[in-house]
């Protein structure tokens, strides 16, 4: 029997149906597979979704000096590609610096390094996975050379950072805000959807995310100048899109290269899937919330774990429980392995970047003792299964396994 056969509840599984299959097959048969009309329509439809903010939202944004222009969306082949585009458009380059959290996936900070910039880490808040705004301001105050050009908050598991405070800090110190919104679609707040609150936001449509194109992402901004620059840089620095070159009367070989760009475009086959997934996104969200409610009801009075932090606009991409170390005779690793042996697919989000060889060797300040909250979160956290098509029976299986381990390894008090 394979390992896959022994899994009772997978950690994640994409919710893909016949509509997605038909959409992809249509593209395959059309003869146009790369970026074309489906990618362009996907961008428009994503922008339409994000622009559903009401007058009250626009008023709230205006009150604190945020742009109220419509959201512009740019489809890309990954969140990582989108982060590079957003950072490059914000002027991130050699001699500059970004602030982000060490509690994230490796690409968030790596994108700045790809552009030659330095990275400063701000610890997480004590009681959440979100970047600590007080730590951000401490770093900004020390920046006498004005090297810091951007704050990159990460909405871990879909629970949003304190974006109101972050954008206020950005205005005060004259820096950009680039939201790593990989986990946070469709998170809605009084200031708009996550990913549209700062200067730019970058979403992920990787196979495990809240909606998927298999691989892919989207960059959003309200700033037309940033959008124009990212559009050019997304496709080799070319002044014409591939779709325009091959569908307009103007000769396809007549184009100019106006910058040393990248190749970060999203193919139509993937965009076609994304268009269907976008229509289902809110239904997916409601289904995840039902599983979350069942988990919360089961775990809220537990003496050996804590339910995940929750706040305005939480998209519930992941369900992160934190073990109470003092209440158990085993640690996080052994608890996680025990769940796996019981057939429960689990993960850990995230290994803080200061645990990785590259970052440890890069700067002597990148040590666990300098980020106690991130380190404590890491040592106690397990991600439980959470995906739209999970059944109630699957959720109850997870709950039963978690509670039985808590009873087995709980300390007598």
Can you tag this structure with a few keywords?
about 425 residues, alpha/beta, seven-stranded mixed β-sheet, three-stranded antiparallel β-sheet, 14 helices, 12 strands, about 40% helix, about 10% strand
Task: Give an overview of the whole structure.
This protein has 413 residues and is α/β, with parallel strands linked by helices. The chain has 14 helices and twelve strands. The protein has helices spanning 18-30, 37-50, 55-63, 79-89, 106-114, 133-142, 163-173, 224-234, 242-247, 268-299, 332-341, 357-362, 372-380, 392-409, and strands at 72-76, 97-100, 118-121, 148-152, 176-180, 188-189, 192-193, 200-204, 217-221, 305-306, 319-323, 381-384. The protein has a seven-stranded mixed sheet, sandwiched between helices. A three-stranded antiparallel sheet has the order 10-11-12. Strands 6-7 form a two-stranded antiparallel ribbon. Helix 6 (133-142) packs parallel to helix 7 (163-173). The longest helix is centred in the last third of the chain and has 32 residues, at 268-299. The two termini are 41 Å apart. The mean pLDDT is 95.
């Amino acid at each position: 029997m394979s390992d896959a056969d022994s899994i009772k509840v997978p950690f994640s599984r994409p919710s893909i149906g016949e509509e997605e299959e038909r959409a992809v097959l249509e593209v395959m048969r059309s003869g146009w597979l790369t970026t074309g009309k489906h990618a362009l329509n996907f961008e428009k439809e994503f922008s339409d979704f994000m622009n559903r903010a009401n007058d009250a939202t626009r008023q709230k944004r205006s009150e604190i000096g945020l742009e109220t222009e419509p959201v512009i969306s740019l489809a890309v082949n990954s969140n990582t590609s989108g982060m590079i585009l957003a950072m490059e458009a914000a002027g991130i380059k050699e001699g500059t610096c970004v602030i982000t959290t060490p509690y994230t996936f490796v690409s968030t900070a790596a994108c700045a390094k790809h552009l030659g910039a330095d990275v400063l880490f701000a610890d997480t808040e004590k009681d959440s996975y979100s970047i600590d705004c007080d730590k951000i301001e401490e770093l900004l105050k020390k920046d006498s050379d004005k090297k810091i050009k951007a704050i990159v908050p990460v909405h871990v598991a879909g629970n949003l950072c304190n974006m109101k405070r972050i954008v206020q800090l950005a205005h005060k110190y004259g820096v950009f805000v680039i939201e790593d919104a990989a986990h946070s679609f469709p998170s809605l707040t009084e200031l708009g959807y996550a990913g549209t609150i700062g200067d730019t936001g970058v979403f992920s449509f990787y196979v495990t995310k809240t909606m998927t194109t298999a691989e892919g992402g989207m960059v959003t901004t309200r700033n037309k100048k940033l959008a124009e620059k990212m559009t050019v840089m997304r496709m080799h620095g070319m002044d014409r899109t591939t779709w325009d070159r091959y569908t307009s009367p103007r000769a396809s070989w007549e184009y100019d290269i106006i910058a040393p760009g990248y190749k970060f475009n999203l193919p139509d086959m993937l965009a076609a899937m994304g268009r269907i997934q976008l229509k289902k996104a809110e239904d997916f969200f409601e289904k995840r919330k039902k599983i979350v409610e069942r988990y919360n009801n089961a775990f809220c009075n537990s003496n050996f774990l804590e339910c995940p932090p929750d706040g305005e606009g939480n998209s519930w991409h992941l369900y992160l429980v934190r073990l109470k170390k003092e209440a158990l005779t085993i640690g996080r690793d052994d608890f996680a392995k025990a769940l796996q042996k019981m057939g429960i697919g689990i993960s850990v989000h995230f290994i803080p970047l200061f645990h990785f060889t590259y970052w440890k060797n890069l700067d002597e300040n990148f040590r666990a003792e300098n980020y106690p909250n991130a380190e404590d979160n890491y040592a106690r956290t397990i991600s439980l299964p959470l995906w739209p098509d999970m059944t109630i029976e699957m959720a109850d299986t997870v709950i039963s396994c978690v509670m039985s381990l808590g009873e087995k390894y709980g300390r007598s008090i």
